[in-house]
Specification:
Layout (H helix, E strand, L loop, with lengths): L5 H8 L7 H34 L3 H10 L11 E11 L2 H4 L6 E9 L5 E6 L2 H12 L5 E10 L2 E8 L7
Antiparallel strand pairs: 1-2, 1-4, 2-3, 4-5
Amino acid sequence: MATNSVPEKAAKTGQVQQPSLLNRFVDQIKGEAELTKTMTSSDVASRVTEKMLEADSLEDAIAAQDSGMPSGKDLVDVEMQVNDFDTLPSSEQFSEGSPLGVYLLVHAVKLEDGSPLEFSTGAPNIVTLLHKARKLDRLPLDCVIRSKPTSNGALLTLKLLPKRVIR
């Protein structure tokens, strides 16, 4: 005897099935990513071009070209203040296995020296927590990325920095 799936049963009984909180979140951030993709992707390319033009030598310009955008993996244990971020759709090669299908272009500063910092990350925990911080009006956010070993590699997590006493 074949059992009907949940959506089939809901359709037969007239019950309306609400999307899960995760599905609503994914729909929301994918929509945001579609809205910002054309504006931001050309902006990233412009920044790389500007770095090449600002270089003092051809070697420095080539280094700027090859440096690319750091990722969250490159910034583990770097204390930072996240000021804002853009949500962008992941390309197919990176979206496979990702539950969210987006990545963030994060605008931050290093707390150590105040230098500007931009990086990309598609780590689900970081994407989710930064969206939560924005929703709760908690940006700018003093935080640090941590890496936790797992059986599938490393899990990137976002940790809040404790408030520091300023004298």
